[in-house]
Amino acid sequence: MKILMVGAGGVGGYFGGRLAAAGEDVNFIARGPHLAAMQARGLKLESQLGNVLVDPVRACVNADGLDPVDLVFIAVKLGDTPSAIEACRGAVGPDTVVISLQNGLAADEWLVAAFGAGQVAGGVAYIAANAAAPGVIVHTGTNQCIQVGELAGGLSPRTDRIAAALTRAKIKCESVGDIARARWEKFVFLVGLAASTSLTGETIGVIRADPNMRALLRSVIDESVAVGRARGIDFAENYADQRLAFADTLPEAMTSSMHHDLAAGKPLELDWLSGAVLRMGVESGIDTPVNATVYAALKTRCGGDNTTS
Question: Deepest in the core among 48, 163, 250, 304, taking most CB within 10 A?
Fold first, then answer.
């Protein structure tokens, strides 16, 4: 399968590296020192599931000059989605499927506007990984999973083929009939993890062991579940309990991509996480005071260290 991975950080670098190592035809779009290191020394994955060095690796700044591919994965920060769309256009043909592996809930709408509903499928990625150095991706723990599905719901041969390619690369993957619910299920937990780790500066191990911080995590999750239900998502009655139990199984050192970005002075995805819960809560008549507090506390850092408003 011909695959274009737009973004080679923790998510794109890990999953794209696994696919390339398994023999799939993978090109990466990357930039800066990370791109230069990949071109010079390859892409290295460090993981308890086995280290991988993809060398040589095909990586460039955009898809200009590439033939159309079968599949485009978008794996950049949400704020970089417009530039990612333009960077990959040259490789999107009439039969190409475009899938977002990004955080939040906004990306699918942007991709449909750019490429048309028929060329976009839904995706959900679960992994704790980050670019520890240029050309090096470090995977924390052993969890690594992708769900794919049609935006309109139901199963399809094309998402089954995508799932099969990922499975061949030893990536846990499944086609799901309700990708909208799957995206919300991740969103609920991600909002809680990002909010609690970024606001406290602590790992999930510290947060879940401390009664006050655990209550913060639970409150953020509860509000997100309430907003999702108000918008038609049929969560299980005890879904918030399930997510808290899931948090108890994660590696103690795990944090969140937003926590890493905050520590590094990079722009935050806050507007699409707690900020989105706040906005959707207002639209749906659901109070979200804890997410509102998280948003207020971190909003001046959304643009990185140089932001002033």
Answer: 163
Counting the structural domains of the chain, the total is: 2
User: Which CATH number characterizes residue 291's domain?
Assistant: 1.10.1040.10
Provide the pLDDT confidence category of residue 305 given band limits of 50, 70 and 90: low
Do residues 163 and 232 share a domain? no
pTM of the model: 0.91
Domain extent, residue 55, equals 2-177
The DSSP string of the chain is: -EEEEE--SHHHHHHHHHHHHTT-EEEEE--HHHHHHHHHH-EEEE-TT--EEE-S--EESS-TTPPP-SEEEE-S-GGGHHHHHHHHGGG--TT-EEEE--SSS-HHHHHHHHH-GGGEEEEEEEEEEEEEETTEEEEEEEEEEEEEEETTSS--HHHHHHHHHHHHTT-EEEE-S-HHHHHHHHHHHHHHHHHHHHHH---HHHHHHSHHHHHHHHHHHHHHHHHHHHTT----TTHHHHHHHHHTTS-TT---HHHHHHHHT----GGGTHHHHHHHHHHHT---HHHHHHHHHHGGGTT-TT---
Please identify, among 177, 202, 217, the residue that sits at the C-terminal boundary of a domain: 177
pLDDT tens string 17-57 = 999 999 999 999 999 999 999 999 999 999 999 999 999 99
